[in-house]
Every structure is written in structure tokens, then in C-alpha cells.
UniProtKB/TrEMBL annotation:
<dbReference type="InterPro" id="IPR002575">
    <property type="entry name" value="Aminoglycoside_PTrfase"/>
</dbReference>
<keyword id="KW-0418">Kinase</keyword>
<keyword id="KW-0808">Transferase</keyword>
<feature type="domain" description="Aminoglycoside phosphotransferase">
    <location>
        <begin position="20"/>
        <end position="238"/>
    </location>
</feature>
<dbReference type="GO" id="GO:0016301">
    <property type="term" value="F:kinase activity"/>
</dbReference>
<dbReference type="Pfam" id="PF01636">
    <property type="entry name" value="APH"/>
</dbReference>
<dbReference type="InterPro" id="IPR011009">
    <property type="entry name" value="Kinase-like_dom_sf"/>
</dbReference>
<protein>
    <submittedName>
        <fullName>Choline/ethanolamine kinase family protein</fullName>
        <ecNumber>2.7.-.-</ecNumber>
    </submittedName>
</protein>
Length: 294
């Protein structure tokens, strides 16, 4: 990639950018904040990432729909490998912010609103995101690429089958599918949901489970999510939800394994893999206990 600041400065949507700053936190894209004409913008630089199923046309369609629904900042400009958005002056959440009971209630409402609003505002085709197919695809690619984690992959495939069976029939919504804390912003009055590169049709349980698994919610908080989210029930849906939670953690683990091989970004993917493997094993143990004695 050419120098990100130089590339951002040359974009046709800017007249005379006078301040360009690289934003931290990105583990898939390079993100910059650009000031131009008294306004500020976020520039996301990143091409398609086939090993992760990231297609920028899909991200663009979902970003536009999310902006139309009032969930995400407006799309200002796009071209191959570039997405320019309005900058939101806001606090980026950390996991401890997500776990705060007051924030968690707001986030649950935001997720439910996103699931209601995104479909009607879409004006272009988008992908489906079925986590079990995603995980099988990762395993196939990691096997072909000679991943250092080869010994773990056959067991993950077997676990994936059991988790998919637990999911049962689903109702489809347009999901975000990457509910890390850093994708939630608080401007002091309202919350924003950003970064739609993994968005697509999925079960609503996957977003709820991803929020929980990525932010270390307690079991009481998880049950509260299912109680508060319209149409779900903590007793009826607990097994399917736990299956989705394991699928979410497996996806994050496999994502990191693939990034160890393919990503050029300066990030400790090996450490991230180890962290997520530990969380995945703990969640699978909990899921196994739900199945009862063999």
C-alpha cells in the first residue's frame, strides 16, 4: 500500500485537506481522520479480503443502508479500496463500557433497531453471513495454507456440525456480525454502530452472542440480553444462543489464524489467536454441559 496519508490527501472528494491523522485500533483496514473545509471525515483504506469473505461492495451497500437508517455515519465518497465517511465526535467503547448495565440496555436496543431497520433501507444486494459456512471455509483455507494450527482444525469441523445442529431453524435479519466494543460509539446523546464489512443476513442470535463473547458478559447479562431483545426468550433460546456464541468465538479464532498468515498490518495476531482459543474452549465446555450425558 502506498503511504496512507498521501493516498487520502489525493482523494477527489477533498479540496484542501489540512490535517490527516492515522487512527489506531484497526486490525483489518487502515483508518485515517481527515479535516477539509471545516469538516472532518474518516477514510477507510482496504481492498477485498477473500480469505475473510470481505467484499467492499457489500460493505458499501450496508454502510449506505445503515446511514439511511440513522445507525451509522453518512457515506461521503467511495472508490476501489476507499470508503470515506462523516467523522463522529464520540467515545469509542471498550469491553468494560459494554458491560456497564446502563450501556448494555442501550446497546441491546441499538441492535434490535438495526435488525428492524436495515432490511427496508437496503437498495442493493448483500451477502448472507452464515457462521458455520464461514468457519468451514476458514478451516479449508487454513488447511490448504499449511497453518501452524493444523492439528486443531479437524476437531473444529466436528464441533461446527454440532453447533449448527443446535442453531435449529432461524429467522433472518440483516446483522452486523462483528460486535466488538470498538465498533460502538457514544457521542454523549446516542450510540452509533460502525464498520459493516462483515455485515449480511444472519440469525439475530449471532449478533447477541457475538456481543456477549467479544465483551465477556456474565451469564446474568446474557440472559438479560435474551429477555430484552424482542422475540427471544432466555429459556427457550438458550441452547441455540450458546451454539451461536461458540460459533462466534470459533469464527474470531479462525479469523485470527488466517490473519497470522495473510495480514501485513502490525498486530499481534498470534497472541489474539491464543486469547480467543482459550475463550472458545471455555464456551465449548459450557455448551457440552448443556447437551447432558452422552
Amino acid at each position: 500500500m502506498s503511504d496512507p496519508k498521501e493516498r487520502a490527501a489525493r482523494l477527489s472528494c477533498f479540496r484542501a485537506p489540512d490535517e490527516i491523522e492515522v487512527l489506531g485500533g484497526g486490525i483489518t483496514n487502515v483508518n485515517l481522520r481527515v479535516s477539509d473545509g471545516g469538516r472532518r471525515y474518516v477514510v477507510r483504506l482496504g481492498d477485498d479480503i477473500p480469505e475473510h469473505g470481505v467484499m467492499r461492495w457489500n460493505e458499501l451497500a450496508l454502510s449506505r443502508a445503515a446511514a439511511e437508517a440513522g445507525l451509522s455515519p453518512g457515506v461521503v465518497h467511495h472508490e476501489p479500496g476507499v470508503l470515506v465517511l462523516d467523522f463522529i465526535e464520540a467515545k469509542t467503547f471498550a469491553p468494560e463500557d459494554v458491560r456497564d448495565p446502563a450501556n448494555l440496555a442501550r446497546i441491546t436496543e441499538l441492535i434490535a433497531r438495526a435488525h428492524r431497520a436495515m432490511g427496508p433501507t437496503l437498495t442493493a444486494p448483500v451477502l448472507a453471513f452464515w457462521p458455520f459456512q464461514v468457519n468451514r471455509s476458514y478451516v479449508a483455507r487454513l488447511t490448504a495454507d499449511g497453518s501452524a494450527h493444523q492439528a486443531l482444525l479437524p476437531g473444529m469441523l466436528r464441533q461446527c456440525d454440532a453447533l449448527e445442529a443446535a442453531a435449529g431453524p432461524v429467522r433472518m435479519v440483516v446483522g452486523h456480525n462483528d460486535l466488538l466494543a470498538a465498533n460502538l460509539l457514544d457521542d454523549g446523546e446516542r450510540l452509533w454502530l460502525i464498520d459493516w464489512e462483515y455485515g449480511g443476513y444472519n440469525s439475530p442470535l449471532f449478533d447477541l452472542a457475538g456481543l456477549a463473547s467479544n465483551n465477556a458478559l456474565t451469564e446474568a447479562q446474557e440472559r438479560g440480553l435474551l429477555e430484552a431483545y424482542p422475540g427471544t426468550d432466555p429459556e427457550r433460546d438458550w441452547r441455540a444462543y450458546q451454539g451461536m456464541k461458540c460459533a462466534s468465538l470459533m469464527r474470531e479464532t479462525l479469523w485470527s489464524m488466517a490473519s497470522e498468515i495473510h495480514s501485513d498490518l502490525d498486530f499481534d495476531y498470534a497472541g489474539y489467536t491464543a486469547e480467543n482459543l482459550g475463550r472458545l474452549h471455555a464456551a465449548l465446555d459450557d455448551f457440552s454441559r448443556l447437551q447432558g450425558p452422552k
